[in-house]
Design brief:
This protein is 75% helix and 0% strand. Helix 29 (532-549) packs antiparallel against helix 31 and helix 56 runs antiparallel to helix 57.
């Protein structure tokens, strides 16, 4: 014992001297001797803490605490240790603080007890997160073991619970939003599913409901209690919605209902609680709801949708609930005793008032307004009952379908079946379907009733419903059975009794039916105003029984019999339609009063479309008067009701088919059938019918009466609708030849010619479109005079003129003389004065005589065709002034003509508002005034205002989409407007919507490509432009332009071995663009750059000469720097094209002029980079031309200048070296060597310079140079991935030549070089071809075949080999057929011809 104390003393001394390692060893020694030495554990924990070993220190303190749990020293040490670690050990800190506080509590040291707790709570608030702070607050709540000691010294529990509630609310909301944001980005994730999963996960771990409950229990503030009661209900409701079906959901449902009902009991006005208390009750009958709660709901929430429905229903005569005045009377006695008490509402200024509708119309309006946006099962149920009493069967059917769908959602939310509510909805829907468009929905109605009867066989409404179905279907025995069973269940139900009696009458038992109906009438009269409709129906039915019991004329004519009951029915219900029908029959057949009879029949049809008898008699009456419009109106009303159905198919088709079954060879029936098919849009069937008719023309022509031209005209119409315009035009011409004055045929021919012209423009047949437009104008001159005052005549002329403004390359062919005759030269004609003060369009330019220069002729012709189109549309507008729709369309057409004229202006004039654009805006605005519901008019207004007023343009596009959200043009135009305003997000959304609306609309993809281009994704943009090009029409200039530019940009940045095949489509596109817009020189210039790369230099020369001439003329006229720049660049490219076709003198002349124009002193807009490239190209071109012109000194001078200006461009150096070597002088060759060595020093990977140096070394027989070159070429061949197949072939040839000229080399070393090529590049034919040449016999044949196979696989699109490479491979096999194939692929290659000659000679 003494030794232990001595050791502990030694430990203490070491601690005082801060020798903690020594103290640790001594403490461990003490513990080893006696593990129950409390002070040793304390010392050890303290020293470990000082040595920064918190985990070991904590363990030591805990061991000490186990030995003496009631001693504070260990817990104090733990607290100090935990405080050093911040929030990491906050949970352990809480446990230690609690234990220490309990120790102080037992010692009755309450100050220290509170201090420990306060310090911990403050520490948690400062260092912990919000959730840890909430956990820390648990220490000062009533559930804490230390709370009895702290009560009164810490904040009231309500305050602490409120803090916890606020923090937990915020954290859970934040956690839910964060998790949803993270998980919604997963592949295949759906937002609603992710939201449900996250809420379920968070609510499962939540303690918020418990905190709310405790706060409600502890708070003394009523306002706070009510607030958190609402939050608790909302929280539990939210939990209910996310739980899956099962026991947990059922428990949560019970909790929510209890909370809601408790709130309703204390009359706390929280809407969710009242909605749940009313809406979630599943009572079988409406009377089971507490009417007091319903009225209090209307008082508390007078503006809610449910309140409107309830207020209207409670005030209706159909309500099963007692009137409010009756309830007030019953409650008056109990209220008098409390008269002196003042309610809370009185203190606040009075209670809320509820609107009570005074009239039936007000009631219906109030309830309809409520149900239109209500989300309430009870509201649907009340409205269904109300509609059923009003016999609004169509509205009720629609409403109950909606209610059943809503019920499914509520079942999913709550897990409750709502069986009684479902039955109520099914019964209302079934009853409505019995009468709505009877008997169309009887099968569905019966299924609904049967479903209810399966679990409720005694359901009276279901039995009545089935009985009514059988009654409507005239199965009276079954109807009597079901209605009888219903009557047993409800003997006091007068509706069932009268219906059962009436079924007997329908079956023919008028005696019993009359007796039962007579017994019901006094009972109905006793009910006063509640069943007036049923009384009227019963009186009418009783009258019908009397009418049918005695069919004698005297009995029916008597005013004391059935007639009296019919009048009584109308007295009870003035709008009872069947009574009017019966009275009409009485007046027509017996009283002989046709005027009264017609009025009765008309009133019956007005009141009910089910009165077929009245409709039939009324229609016959109108037919007798020849009033066929009213006959059609009456007949259509009955057909629309569903009571009478026309035969399937179109009536004319059915009739003609029936006639042809009787007489299959009847010509006129076949023509009539074809016309009927054509009118109904069945063009294929119409074609077959007309062809049958024409077959009869040939076989039975003499028996056919009347003209037969109509069949050709009809067939032409069909062909036109099918888009077969050529056939249609041919048929129209045949008819015109026979009947020149047939106006309809002439108009149809003109319209078809124009439609065909626009169709072939879309397909790229521009020349044919011009021919068709000219033919339209030519035919218009000789058309019948009668049609020259029609809208379609002038519209066709205008559209034909517009064709020339689209295909501007053919504008020179515009038939000015013909148009002048049609339009006239009188500028003062009234028709042409419309908008003349705005657009200034008259006949002056069209009829102007004189010669124009070539540079002016295109502009004059273009102006003539657009102005002729405008004037023709003005004539069309004038003749269409009597019809509003046609007048609006004429303004619309004129607006587009004016805008097309604006679009044809030069670019610098299009950038601002022109007179044509102003006129276009006016036209579209006028069209909208006349027909505001036309989406195309709004879209057009948006287009023409897009640059002058973006806000108006956006409004127009939005309005157009509101009218027709499926308009792909409007979505694309909106995206374009957003693009112009730099709103890329909106533009992307609009273009995406356009793509989903119509994936084949090219301009939507073009817009997406422009967005990708603006965002820097060039590859994506090129792909989108390519797709747009594939699906667009030939007239889409924007698509072709952007596609061609993107391909050219790709060529500039891609490897030089781009397949020629990929350049063909841009050339075609640009050629079509030149045809559409020849004045846009940039398209032609770009086309020549593509042609240059496809070796189509002759066409490039023609185009560039035209561009140069045009640019030069424009510069001379305007002195424009832009024109001078265009001229300089075109001359540079023209010089290269001259060089390529062998026109060296012209190349020198053009190149020198380009050099002069691109000098720094010239006044043009060339950028520094453009000037450098242009001058380099011009110098090289002139140099090569001078060389081929055998003027070597001038060539060398040009190349020297090119090197000086291009900073020794490697390619230019190689050209100069070759020319210097070709001069033959030693001085020049030495200069060539120096230049090549200089290039290799500056650009060691420049393949061409290394190859040339190798050739020079071979010619000089310089071993040192050859050794260095061979080493460099082997490095390039083995390691470079940027070599083209052509370069790889040249490298192999040079290495082979070096090996062959090596004196010490053997044939094997030469063969080894060739084999190396095949090993490094087995996918290229060059090595295999060389191997074939270096081998003999079968090996040579195998190598040649291998070369051919890899060449076939290496051509586009699978590879980058040229046609020459494939031709060489074919020529290498030695077979005549392969040599011919090689010639076909590359006829300009000598090797193929030589191989063919050798093969033939060898044979």
């Amino acid at each position: 014992m003494s030794s232990t104390k001595a050791l502990l003393k030694a430990v203490g001394e070491s601690i005082k001297q801060h020798k903690f390692d020594e103290a640790i060893e001594k403490a461990k020694e003490v513990i080893q001797k006696d593990q129950n030495t409390y002070q040793a554990h304390i010392f050890l924990a303290f020293c470990l803490d000082k040595k920064n070993k918190p985990d070991e220190s904590e363990a030591a303190y805990l061991n000490a605490a186990k030995l003496k749990a009631k001693d504070s020293q260990a817990w104090q040490g733990l607290i100090q240790l935990y405080q050093k670690q911040g929030a990491k050990k906050l949970k352990e800190y809480q446990h230690a603080a609690l234990q220490l506080a309990l120790i102080y509590h037992e010692a009755d040291d309450l100050l220290k007890c509170q201090d420990v707790v306060d310090r911990f709570v403050d520490f948690a608030r400062t260092h912990g997160d919000r959730q840890q702070y909430v956990d820390a607050l648990d220490l000062v709540l009533p559930e804490s073991p230390i709370y009895p000691a702290l009560e009164g010294r810490v904040p009231h529990p309500a305050k602490t619970y409120e803090i916890q509630a606020q923090i937990v609310e915020s954290e859970e909301k934040k956690k839910i939003n964060t998790l949803i944001g993270e998980r919604r980005t997963r592949i295949g994730a759906r937002v609603n599913e992710v939201t449900l999963e996250v809420k379920r996960e968070v609510f499962h771990q939540s303690r918020l409901g418990y905190v709310y409950g405790q706060l409600i229990n502890w708070t003394t503030n009523d306002d706070i209690r009510r607030t958190y009661e609402e939050k608790l209900l909302q929280y539990c409701y939210d939990r209910l919605l996310v739980w899956p079906a099962g026991e947990q959901k059922t428990q949560e449902l019970n909790t929510v209902e209890k909370l809601a009902n408790d709130m309703v009991i204390i009359k706390h006005p929280f809407k969710l609680a009242w909605d749940i208390a009313i809406d979630w009750k599943d009572n079988k009958y409406l009377q089971e709801w507490d009417v007091g709660i319903l009225r209090e709901y209307c008082t508390h929430f007078p503006d809610s949708d449910l309140s409107r429905v309830v207020s209207g229903f409670l005030s209706s005569p159909f309500s099963p609930f007692p009137r409010e005045n009756e309830v007030a009377g019953n409650a008056s006695l109990s209220a008098t005793g409390d008269a002196e008490e003042e309610s809370e509402d009185d203190e606040e200024g009075g209670t809320a008032t509820t609107y009570i509708p005074l009239t039936e119309e007000d009631r219906l309006l109030l309830m309809t307004e409520g149900i239109s946006s209500a989300d309430s099962l009870f509201a649907y149920r009340l409205m269904g009952e109300y509609y059923q009493h009003l016999e609004e069967h169509e509205s009720n059917a629609e409403l109950m379908r909606k209610a059943l769908d809503y019920l499914k959602g509520e079942h999913g939310k709550t897990g409750r079946q709502f069986q009684n509510t479902r039955d109520a909805f099914s019964l209302c829907l079934g009853t409505a379907l019995v009468f709505y468009q009877s008997p169309r929905h009887h099968q569905e109605a019966k299924a609904l009733f049967d479903h209810v009867l399966e679990h409720d066989p005694a359901s009276t409404p279901a039995l009545i419903g089935v009985g009514l179905i059988y009654e409507e279907e005239e199965d009276y025995d079954e109807a009597i059975d079901f209605l009888g069973r219903a009557m047993k269940r409800a003997p006091d139900n007068l509706r069932v009794r009268t219906e059962a009696a009436w079924v007997k009458a329908l079956k023919g038992d008028y005696v019993n039916s009359k007796a039962e109906l007579e017994a019901c009438i006094p009972l109905l009269k006793d009910q006063n105003q509640t069943n007036k409709d049923l009384l009227a129906q019963t009186q009418y039915r009783l009258g019908s029984c009397i009418w049918n019991l005695d069919v004698s004329k005297a009995a029916r004519k008597s005013r004391d019999g059935a007639y009296a009951y019919f009048l009584d029915a109308l007295k009870s219900n003035l709008n009872y339609a069947p009574a009017y029908t019966s009275l009409g029959i009485y007046y027509a057949d017996f009283a002989k009063d046709k005027k009264r009879a017609r009025r009765c029949f008309q009133k019956a049809v007005e009141l009910s479309s089910s009165e077929v008898t009245s409709a039939e008699r009324l229609a016959k009456s109108f037919a007798d008067d020849g009033d066929w419009d009213r006959v059609e109106l009456v007949a259509q009303r009955i057909v629309d009701s569903g009571k009478v159905r026309p035969p399937p198919g179109s009536k004319p088709i059915v009739s003609f088919q029936a006639a042809l079954r009787i007489s299959p060879e009847d010509y006129h029936s076949w023509v009539g059938l074809g016309e009927s098919y054509y009118s109904s849009g069945r063009y294929i069937a119409a074609t077959k019918a007309i062809l049958n008719a024409q077959r009869l023309e040939g076989t039975a022509g003499e028996h056919i009466t009347g003209d037969t031209w109509f069949s050709k005209f009809l067939l032409a119409n069909i062909r036109r609708e099918l888009g077969e315009f050529d056939d249609a035009i041919s048929l129209y011409r045949e008819v015109i030849d026979q009947r020149r004055d047939e106006e309809g045929v002439a108009i149809a021919l003109m319209q078809t010619l124009v439609e065909s012209a626009w169709d072939v423009i879309e397909r790229g047949l521009f020349g044919k479109s011009i021919d068709l437009a000219k033919e339209t104008i030519s035919f218009a001159l000789k058309a019948p005079e009668a049609i020259k005052a029609t809208f379609n005549y002038w519209k066709a002329i205008a559209d034909a003129c517009a064709v020339f403004s689209i295909v501007q390359g053919q504008a020179i062919k515009f038939p000015v003389e013909d148009i002048s005759q049609l339009i006239g030269s009188d500028d003062a004609v009234a028709e042409y004065q419309l908008l003349k003060d705005v657009d200034g369009v008259g006949t002056g330019i069209i009829c102007a005589k004189g010669l124009f220069s070539d540079d002016e002729k295109l502009g004059v012709d273009l102006t003539r065709c657009v102005q002729a189109s405008i004037l023709a549309h003005k004539r069309a507008l004038h003749v269409a002034s009597n019809d509003i729709h046609t007048h609006a369309v004429a303004h619309y057409n004129l607006g587009w003509a004016e805008f097309r004229a604006h679009a044809c202006l030069p670019l610098h004039l299009r950038k601002k508002s022109s007179r044509y654009l102003k006129a276009s805006v006016r036209c579209f605005k006028r069209a909208i005034e006349l027909e505001a519901g036309n989406s195309e008019f709004w879209n057009s207004l948006g287009v023409v205002t897009s640059e002058i007023n973006p806000s108006v343009s956006q409004h127009s596009f939005v309005r157009s989409l509101h009218l027709n959200e499926r308009s792909v043009q409007a979505w694309t135009n909106l995206g374009t407007l957003a693009l112009l305003q730099n709103d890329l997000k909106l533009a992307n959304e609009a273009f995406t919507r356009a793509q989903s609306t119509d994936p084949d609309y090219g301009h939507a993809w073009l817009g997406q490509g422009l967005i990708a281009l603006l965002l820097g994704d060039v590859k994506e943009a090129r792909g989108l432009f390519t797709h747009a090009m594939d699906i667009s029409e030939s007239s889409s200039g924007a698509t072709k332009a952007h596609y061609s530019v993107s391909v050219f940009d790709f060529i500039l940045t891609s490897p030089p071995s781009v397949p020629i095949a990929s350049l063909i489509q841009p050339i075609f596109a640009l050629s079509q663009l030149r045809g559409l817009k020849p004045q846009e020189l940039a398209y032609g210039h770009l086309c020549t750059l593509f042609q240059e790369r496809t070796n189509d230099n002759a066409h490039a020369v023609d185009i560039l000469e035209h561009i140069c001439a045009t640019a030069e003329a424009d510069f001379e006229l305007t002195d424009s720097a832009q024109s001078l720049k265009q001229f300089a660049l075109a001359k540079t490219d023209l010089a290269r094209s001259y060089l390529a076709v062998g026109s060296y003198e012209k190349a020198i002349e053009a190149g020198e002029l380009a050099i002069t124009l691109s000098s720094d002193e010239s006044d043009n807009e060339l950028s520094q980079d453009e000037r450098r490239k242009a001058r380099l190209s011009a110098h090289l071109t002139v140099g090569l031309a001078q060389y081929y012109n055998e003027d070597v000194s001038e060539a060398v001078a040009c190349f020297e200048a090119a090197l000086e200006e291009s900073n020794n461009n490697p390619d230019a150096v190689c050209l100069l070296a070759q020319i210097l070597w070709a001069t033959g002088s030693e001085e020049s060759r030495e200069r060539a060597r120096e230049l090549l060595f200089g290039v290799i020093e500056s650009s060691p990977n420049h393949v061409q310079s290394v190859l040339l140096l190798g050739v020079v070394g071979l010619l000089d027989d310089d071993p040192d140079t050859l050794e260095a070159v061979a080493l460099e070429l082997q490095t390039l061949r083995a390691g470079s991935t940027g070599l083209s197949p052509s370069d790889q072939s040249k490298v192999g040839e040079v290495l082979k030549a070096i090996a062959a000229l090596d004196k010490n080399a053997s044939e094997e070393s030469i063969l080894r070089q060739v084999q190396t090529d095949t090993i490094l590049y087995p996918h290229l034919p060059h090595g295999w071809s060389e191997l074939a040449l270096s081998s003999e016999g079968e090996q040579a044949n195998i190598a040649a075949e291998m070369a051919l196979q890899v060449a076939r696989k290496g051509v586009p699109p699978r590879g980058a080999l040229d046609a020459e490479d494939l031709a060489h491979a074919y020529a290498g096999t030695g077979r005549p057929a392969d040599a011919q194939t090689g010639i076909m692929f590359a006829p300009w290659e000598k090797l193929g011809w030589g191989a063919l000659a050798e093969a033939i000679h060898g044979r």
